[in-house]
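hi!! sorry for the late reply, been swamped w classes. u asked for the two structures so here they r. pasted raw, havent cleaned anything up. first the sequence of the first protein and right below it the tokens
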Amino acid sequence: MLTFNIKLRKRKSQCLNFEGEVIKKMKETPTLLSTRDIRLAYRIYFIVGALFICALVVSNLIFQKFFSWDFFGVYTFEISVGILPYPITFLMTDLVSEVYGKKKANQLVTAGIFASLFSLLIIYSAQAVRATSWSPVGDDLFSDVFGATAIAVFASMMAYLLAQYIDIHIYHFWKRVTKGKHLWLRNNFSTFLSQFIDTFTVLLLLCSFEEISWDRFGVLLLSGFLFKVLVAAIDTPFLYLGVGILRRRFGLAVGEELNLPV
């Protein structure tokens, strides 16, 4: 009887180990998507990419206007309106990184670079032609508004390249460390550092080209960084919402990424 009980326990132990191995393999095996789901995944990716590129290009075009914002008497922000859409780009790359993976997030960043260059080419072309005498917007006014755009795009692109690639790299570093858990941690930790690098680099280049005076550097750096940190903290629930919706729609486990063919 004792021998029978020992054998029974061994069999149960083996079954439990086998069941554990099966569950582990199921988690490691990427979720297979139907053709319909693949099309939907790409459609969502292209929409997010379009919004990302729009926010990036617009932030470069409107950067020359500055405003102040009193945050409940705690701190007064002095920032460019170009910062307003910019943190959204980091939210979108984090969303793509989490669901689509590092490769797709890097592709989004690269597309943003080409979009910025193309917008710069269009602006240069518009400046090259002379305005008519009856044009509501004359050459001088157009140059005042868009004249510094080339420098802004260059400064933004340098900062953007550095910050976005660092953001994506750090995001996936924390994703590996946390094994796909604690989404809030990698979202904020990656964004905080990359946003500081972005703000510092943009202001350094703009001050070096004398678009902004050096005496404004410290104030704008602090205001810009704190504002981006605030927005990053606020957008965390929206990242959870977006990731949660996509995970449920495509049947993804926590930390799992879409296995798209291209």
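now the second protein. again sequence first, tokens right under
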Amino acid sequence: MPDLAARKLPTQARARATVEAIIEGCARVLRHDGYARTSTNRIADAAGVAIGSLYEYFPNRDAIVYQLALRRLTVLREEIRLSVEGDRALEEAPAAGELLRRVFETVARDGALFRSVLLDTPDLQGPELRALMAEIAALVAEGADRAGTGVDLHDAPSDLWLLTRMLSHAVLEIVAGDARRGELSTERLLDSLVRLTQRMLAVR
């Protein structure tokens, strides 16, 4: 398993700005080149920092990708939390569809990152990332509980494990834009995913 820990945490404003530039530079390289072609040299170029400065804070490419993933999954967790705990509770299946669209929009902004971390490269799933994913699953469980009679989970732990992974894989495949889907547009596939999810949640 690669070393995913940062070498040191920035304490001064200039150092924090450097680390921020490295992490966001990594996001740009991932979007443009994909995970396989992402390297520390490409990240440093995109960030506008010297390669030595990059290695001062990170030991390798995967440590940077990991920190980026933690940031983006934190944003995703908060998107879900706002939907579940906000003024509008998840009281019916259509609200679940709205939540799914929000999740899709968040994931789509960094599709290459989410796919590489969650599907293609299991070694990038360190303990902090797994903890975040567990928090997201717990929020989904809370949303299902708030849905009351609209959702019938006969075996809640198993049902939620399968449901979250089925939906996450479907979202990632739609975001990836696999050529094998032919003329099926992203919006059409997302509409179908929302419709099928609502139907599945409404079945008693």
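hope this helps!! also noticed smth abt the second:
The radius of gyration is 19 Å.
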